[in-house]
Design goal:
The complex is a heterodimer. Chain A is an all-alpha fold. Helix content of chain A is 72%, strand content 0%. Chain A has 15 helices and no strands. In chain A, helix 4 packs across helix 10 and helix 5 packs across helix 8. In chain A, 46% of the residues are buried. By secondary structure, chain B is an all-alpha fold. Chain B folds into two domains: 54 residues; 225 residues, MetI-like fold (Orthogonal Bundle), CATH 1.10.3720. The interface between A and B is large, with 109 and 107 residues.
Chain lengths: 296, 308
């Protein structure tokens, strides 16, 4: 019996090029993340002497954390608390506003509905940064700049959340259930509270995730609204700290124990919460990205 | 005759009741919408209108100034330069996104499923690195002394961070940062578009003797063109609003600090360094107008987002 060999496939030139491109891309996106996880294990000097992707020691990592978290009587804790307050406040408010709005836009026809939808889409596509200075000018006119309230209220306005809720209720809520509830004499409040909301868990997760992502790392709005450093969030406080200590410039050391490893640790503190959410809720996030394109 | 009398009132009554019910329904709808509409008004419509109004008044005298603020803003020599800077950046970024995202999405789509999932995860995770953190990270990545990309810089002949910035250019640096953070999300979106392509069309391509490359370039790519266009336009709109990245380059010392690189930075400077809210408002209004025009065009002229 003659054994039949599978034909040997010679990869084409374009196949090789594709493999090459893939490898380059994996390095471009992957190496920085690996480096970021390893870098704080080196001392300031060690960063320059050790090979770039090597492991230093846990002791160094602990020292960087110690320097960063105890500096200026633990401002870090205060900034982290502020970041949490702004994020949780913004997420809650955006959910409170987006869920009923998305529900009613998806299930009812009423005068003004189309206008509201179009305004929502325009607001969603317009980059947040475009509104930052106008919001600041208005808030300073109202005397509300430099308050936590202004920060939470401003981030509670999250049109992308309304869009996500609208899409979700329009596609995932079975018409029959809605009609049955209505025939049974349930008003919109009852339908919303006892039928739509319990089914909306995926939408809630999505809106909360994207709203959290936007608020947690918000720099521009925090920069203009909050000049008092006790109100700073993590990105604002940590960059001010790195800048003040001149940790990343080549100028002479300032005597402040904030050097390069501490700067990287600061970046990690901002990144890690989001990274964890990315890793543990990839399925939801992908669904959301597919639903709405991306809002950077 | 008296028997027919009661009929008209009853139907009028019914119509009135129906109208009342309809009005009540509309009222209920707007009660549901109230929290969102208040926020839309407070943080969308009002600030835009206020900034627009403010842009016609002199901040220091409080007097109506007509177009003076706009004239001051436009005659600031830094404005043209900043638009040129951001224009260069946007062209570089959008081109890199179109080519890079399409290529990577198509390559990953042709890979075995498990490997594809792993590759997409590697591309996607840098999305967690945003705002301040991305600048800190890239200041290290672009420093040949500590960067894992050291060999690349050695090939370029760049010995220190300033050399690297000179070689790549500031617009190039911001392009790398933005591609690093945003490409992964769009690769996932393209993946979604690719897996929803009709299988019979792809099969027909295969039967006709298309090799994987041909299939990717001549069958799949034209079919995800809509999503690609949306990506390009949204990237363009976001790119024009660049602020955080140039603003934070100063972390690396005065040689790299660029405080007027982008139009948004200029608007920020007018408000915070010079206290001239009028010119700042005029600049914000102009920058916002560009973004709003793009958004309006996407929503009204194309059918990317259907409203019903």
């Amino acid at each position: 019996m003659a054994s039949r060999r599978p034909p040997v496939r010679i990869p084409s030139l374009t196949g090789f090029m594709a493999m090459g491109l893939l490898l380059v891309a994996l390095c471009f996106f992957g190496l920085p993340m690996v480096w970021l996880m390893l870098a704080t294990s080196h001392t300031d000097a060690g960063l320059f002497t050790a090979p770039p992707l090597s492991w230093g020691s846990f002791a160094n990592m602990g020292a960087a954390w110690e320097n960063l978290s105890t500096y200026e009587s633990a401002y870090l804790v205060r900034w982290a608390t502020n970041s949490l307050i702004y994020s949780i406040g913004g997420v809650s408010l955006s959910l409170i506003a987006a869920l009923p709005a998305g529900f009613i836009l998806a299930t009812q026809v009423f005068p003004g509905r189309r206008l509201i939808l179009i305004l929502t889409l325009i607001a969603m596509i317009t980059p947040n940064a475009a509104l930052v200075l106008p919001i600041y000018l208005q808030m300073s006119f109202l005397g509300l700049d430099n308050t936590r309230t202004a920060m939470v209220l401003a981030t509670g306005f999250f049109p992308f959340g309304v869009y996500l809720a609208f899409i979700y209720f329009a596609t995932a809520l079975p018409r029959e259930i809605l009609n049955a509830a209505r025939v049974d004499g349930a008003g919109p409040w009852r339908v919303f509270a006892s039928v739509a909301l319990p089914l909306a868990r995926p939408a809630i997760a999505l809106i909360a995730f994207f709203s959290f992502l936007a608020n947690w790392s918000n720099y521009f709005l925090a920069l203009v609204l909050l000049s008092d450093d006790r109100l700073h969030n993590l990105p604002l406080g940590l960059t001010a700290l790195i800048s003040g200590a001149r940790a990343l410039s080549f100028s002479a050391a300032t005597g402040i124990p904030i050097r390069r490893p501490e700067a990287i640790m600061a970046a990690l503190i901002i990144i890690v919460p989001v990274l964890l959410i990315f890793l543990f809720s990839q399925r939801y996030i992908r669904a959301g990205l597919l639903a709405g394109g991306e809002k950077g | 005759m008296s028997q027919t009398n009661p009929r008209p009132p009853r139907s009028a009554d019914r119509a009135a009741r129906a109208a009342r019910k309809r009005r009540r329904n509309v009222l209920v709808c707007y009660l549901f919408l109230a929290p969102y509409l208040v926020l839309l008004l407070l943080f969308g419509i009002l600030p835009i209108s206020y900034a627009f109004g403010l842009s016609f008044f002199d901040t220091f005298t409080g007097a109506f100034a007509g177009l003076e603020n706009y004239v001051s803003a436009i005659s600031d020599f830094r404005l043209g330069r900043s638009f040129a800077n951001v224009g260069t950046y946007v062209v570089l970024w959008v081109s890199l996104m179109l080519v890079g995202v399409a290529a990577l999405a198509l390559i990953v789509d042709a890979m075995p499923q498990r490997a594809g999932v792993a590759a997409r995860t590697v591309f996607f995770l840098p999305g967690a690195v945003t705002s301040a953190a991305i600048v800190v990270l890239w200041l290290f990545l672009l420093d040949p002394a500590v960067s894992p990309f050291g060999p690349v810089f050695a090939l370029m002949g760049a010995e220190n961070r300033f050399h690297v910035f000179e070689t790549i250019g500031f617009a190039g640096v911001f392009t790398l940062m933005a591609f690093f953070a945003y490409a992964g999300g769009w690769i996932v979106v393209m993946h979604g578009a690719l897996i929803s392509l009709p299988g019979d069309v792809l099969d027909a391509g295969r039967v006709d003797g298309c090799r994987p490359t041909g299939l990717a370039l001549f069958v799949k790519l034209p079919m995800i063109w809509r999503t690609m266009t949306l990506m390009a336009v949204l990237s363009l709109a976001n790119g024009l609003q660049l602020f955080v990245e140039p603003q934070l380059l100063g972390l690396a010392g005065p040689q790299l600090a660029r405080n007027d690189w982008a139009p948004n930075q200029l608007a920020y400077q007018y408000a915070f360094l010079m206290g001239d809210f009028g010119v700042s408002a005029a600049l914000s209004t102009m920058i916002l107008a560009v973004s709003l025009a793009i958004a309006l065009w996407i929503v009204l002229a194309t059918r990317f987002y259907r409203t019903s």
